[in-house]
Amino acid sequence: MATRYVMSIDQGTTSTRCIIFDQQGRLVSVTQREHRQHFPQPGWVEHDAVEIWRNLERIAPEALKQAGVGLEQVAAIGIANQRETTLVWDRHTGAPLRRAIVWQDTRTTALVDELAARPEASMVQKRCGLPLATYFSAPRIRWLLDDVPGLRERAERGEVLFGTMESWLIWNLTGGPDGGLHLTDVTNASRTLLMDLTTLEWDDDLLDFFGVPRAMLPQIRPSTETYGVARTVLPGVRIGAALGDQQAALFGQTCFAPGEAKCTYGTGSFLLLNTGKDPVRSTHGLLTTVGYQVGAEPAVYALEAPIAVTGALVQWFRDGLGLINSAPEIETLAKTVDDNGGCYIVPAFAGLFAPHWRSEARGVIVGLTSYITKGHLARAVLEATAWQTREVVDAMNADSGLDLRVLKVDGGMTADNLLMQCIADVLDVPVVRPMVAETVSLGAAYAAGLAVGYWPDLEGLRRNWHRAAQWLPSMDPARRESEYDNWRRAVERTFGWLQPRR
Amino acid sequence: MPGPVQSIQRGAAILRLLARSSGKLGVGEIATSLGLPRGTAHGLLRTLQLVGFVEQDSATGKYQLGAALLHLGTSYLDVNELRSRAINWADALAARSCESVKIGTVLDGQVLVVHHVFRPDDTLQTLDVGSLMPMHATALGKVLLAFDSGAGAALGNGPLEAYTRRTIVAPKDLTRSLAGIREVGWAAQVEEMTVGEAGIAAPIRGHGGLVVGAIGISGAVERICDAKGQPNTALVTFVRDAARAVSRDLGAARW
Ligand SMILES: Nc1ncnc2c1ncn2[C@@H]1O[C@H](COP(=O)(O)OP(=O)(O)O)[C@@H](O)[C@H]1O
Fold first, then answer.
1. Per-residue pLDDT tens for B151-208?
2. Using a 6 Å cutoff on CB, does residue A327 contact ligand 1?
3. Which domain holds residue A9?
4. Is residue A473 in some structural domain?
5. Is the pLDDT of residue B252 over 80?
6. Which of the 8 DSSP states describes residue A277?
7. How confident is the model at residue A186 (pLDDT cuts 50, 70, 90)?
8. Residue A51: helix, strand or coil by DSSP?
9. Residues of A in contact with B79 (CB under 8 A)
10. Which of A172, B170, B189, B251 has the smallest number of Cβ neighbours within 10 A?
């Protein structure tokens, strides 16, 4: 029998990627295509869902060709996607009614303030595990229902469908207007603010609160399950999994036991800790979310700490300040000096996420003296990511009552050696990078392969995980404490910067 | 001696014009400014774009100076960028070969390890990034010597240091060995650095085919080599494929 493979689709914020993996979890081929970012107004971010679909139509066959793999050799497809990005489309024509509203979009700020002022608002976090914030999907659906004439009526009649990107892709892959399957998985559904975290069903009170008609919502399914068979692009191939990208990374890092955590370092960074079969409610500014659900087994929950700006600070250093030509050069520049020279950068570009949740905070550079060079600034840029990680790890330890022993890392920033060493130093735990840095894609592939029996069980997947690199802490404890203290004082200086308009 | 080449003069004029202007320029503006037919200007721009000296804005179709031009004076690839760009392929090579992978560049006549992937057996290993290795006794180093004409300068003419009985120490022998490496496109080292260890490496090429580094595996000689003591051909293929994949990502079209 010919060798069989699993294909992952990672529908991300800036691009869509297809990766083919073999049974050992090794990468066989990669294809990728970026899509346009639309910024129609300050604070608005949109994606053209049709463009994203067309990109997939192109790169999926390319990935097969690059690998020299036939359709019949693909055991399953798994999808990982940018979370919370909100799309509504016409069930009969398949046409989106508007461009997708991306997770970074803050157009719903006023709406969220209005909703938060209602007496029932306190129910939201209790029911779904997430704070009422612009970050999640429900306010965006509501915004669309209010903004597009006639949309509410059509949604109530079930003529218009809502979905995040995995729903959109699955619907199109399985036939679109011609019988396409309208479904989502528990991890994506857990990011809408509309799902009850314990029953894993859409919740009527939440639907009422946000004014979202049930008829437009996809069916909630486990993260790994054979949802159906693709009828186009990859005709005949089973679709075996869907997960939000960060949950996919947790899966790809094989964090299957309670207490295991991973942090994905990209534009923003996301620390997720497996908390097992019970949701842990955070008292330290973390999110409670579904980690994954394997078939009919009970869901596994996670605590999540999103950090808004990490790699984006490096991007700003490159594009906004023009001090480097490419992101990796930050390390070269940072290495021209031995320390930060007393300088700290807190990148509260659009407020601070976990664990502070201060939307009025704005970024600061503190400790400037005439001694500071661009090398020191580059160090401060990298250290900002490390200290932000420290803050959320502390919150996680406090919430879970566990002490993180080792941090598994992935994402584009893990190529930065100095940064990885710095994270090990400030956390005082080893930092390990797995052999496949593409853990989001790998997680989607694992989940799909599990659904169709390509991989037997979670233990089998664990055996595929191998350490590619490890950084051990080597910082003097006294220095760690004094630096942390400086960082905390720098963070305090970001608070309250934005004042209500007078 | 032939006279000046007209198209190079025109190309240079376009670059000067783009350098002087604050914004981006359209092909029409460029043609008018330089008194060239539009078609000629377009052809020149296309070529300049191909070599990375100008960039075209996909939305407006206008041109500006390209990133490659800015790097021209320091025509090297930042080692941290090399690591970033190579990381996926280095991982895949380690997974496929079941050996540890290193990427090296030249630093003052030695090999600087810029990336290291552990052997995927989860044994205790320490990260060697930043360490230096001798050029003439490692597969990475020999690749760099073979393909980078400047790299050998620091070695001098005298005999080379012997690490084992099998280290190549005579410059004449090294020259012969390097010629062979250039011919086949990869290098091996069998117990030339440490008894019991061997390595295989191949060149990483950047824009225009310039060698910017080397990628290779190393490990116990009985795993790297076959019964006759020759580098295992399957492993050689893995290494060369990985080198080619990284090169492709770096923009070395033909490799
Ligand atoms: N070597 C590096 N050092 C520091 N930051 C880096 C490095 N390489 C990439 N980055 C940053 O990582 C981000 C890209 O990582 P990636 O995982 O592709 O992110 P995303 O999936 O969020 O787009 C960018 O923000 C970039 O600035």
1. 666 676 678 889 999 999 988 899 899 999 999 999 999 999 999 999 999 999 987 7
2. yes
3. 5-246
4. no
5. no
6. T
7. very high
8. helix
9. 332
10. B170
Q: Among A10, A11, A314, A442, which residue has the most ligand 1 atoms within 8 Å of its CB, making it the best to mutate?
A: A314
The strand pairing partners of A83, in sequence order, are none
Whether the pLDDT of residue A80 is over 90: the answer is: yes
- Say which of B92, B96, B127 has its CB closest to residue A471: B127
Residue A386 carries which side chain, given as an amino acid letter?
Answer: A
Distance CA B17, CA B34 (A): 9
**Chain B touched by A417 (CB under 8 Å):** yes
Q: What is the ipTM for the molecules in this complex?
A: 0.81
Q: Does A436 touch chain B (CB under 8 A)?
A: yes
A468: closest CA among B95, B203, B182?
B95
Strands A467-471 and B132-134, sheet pairing: unpaired
For a mutational test of ligand 1's pocket, the pick from A11, A413, A421, A433, i.e. the residue with the most ligand atoms closer than 8 A to its C-beta, is A413
Q: List CB contacts of A137: < 8 A, sequence separation 6 or more.
A: A84, A85, A86, A164, A191, A192, A193, A194
A342 is in an annotated binding site: no
Looking at residue B2, its pLDDT comes to: 67
Q: What is the CATH number of the domain that holds A77?
A: 3.30.420.40
CB-CB contact of A180 with A172 (8 Å): yes
Asked, for residue A185, whether it belongs to a domain, the answer is yes
Tokens representing B194?
Answer: 């440490």
- Environment class of residue B40 by beta-carbon count within 10 Å: exposed (0-12), middle (13-18) or buried (19+)? middle
Question: What value does the mean pLDDT take over residues A314-337?
Answer: 93
Q: CB neighbours of B129 closer than 8 A, spacing ≥ 6?
A: A417, B113, B114, B115, B116
CB-facing half-sphere around the CA of B176: CA atoms within 13 A: 5
As for how many domains chain A has, the answer is: 1
Global pTM value: 0.83
Question: With an 8 Å Cβ cutoff, are B80 and A331 in contact?
Answer: yes
**Closest CA in chain B for residue A19:** B88
Q: Is the CB of A413 under 6 A from ligand 1?
A: yes
Contact A498, A361 (CB under 8 A): yes
Length of chain B: 255
User: Do B202 and B243 meet the contact criterion of CB atoms below 8 Å apart?
Assistant: yes
Q: How far, in Å, from the CA of A312 to the mean position of ligand 1?
A: 8
Please check whether residue A169 lies inside any domain of the structure: yes
Does residue B143 contact residue B201 with C-beta atoms inside 8 Å? yes
Residue B52 φ/ψ region, left for φ over 0, alpha for ψ in the -120 to 50 degree band, beta for the rest: left
Question: How far is residue A169's CA from residue A172's CA, in Å, rounded to a whole number?
Answer: 5
Within 8 A by CB and 6+ apart from B253, the residues are: none
Asked if residue A262 lies in contact with residue A272, where contact means CB atoms within 8 angstroms, the answer is yes
Q: Assess if residue A42 is contained within a domain.
A: yes
For residue B51, give the nearest of B211, B246, B254, B251 by alpha carbon: B251
| Average pLDDT, integer, range A117-122 | 90
| Chain centroid, CA A408 distance in Å | 16
Burial (0-12, 13-18, 19+ Cβ within 10 Å), A106: middle
What span, in angstroms and rounded, lies between the C-alpha atoms of A150 and A154? 6
pLDDT in tens, A22-50: 998 888 888 999 898 888 888 888 999 99
Q: Which domains does chain B have, with CATH numbers?
A: 6-73 (1.10.10.10), 76-250 (3.30.450.40)
- Shortest CA distance to B189 belongs to which of B153, B239, B148? B239
CA–CA distance, A232 with A302 (Å, rounded to integer)? 34
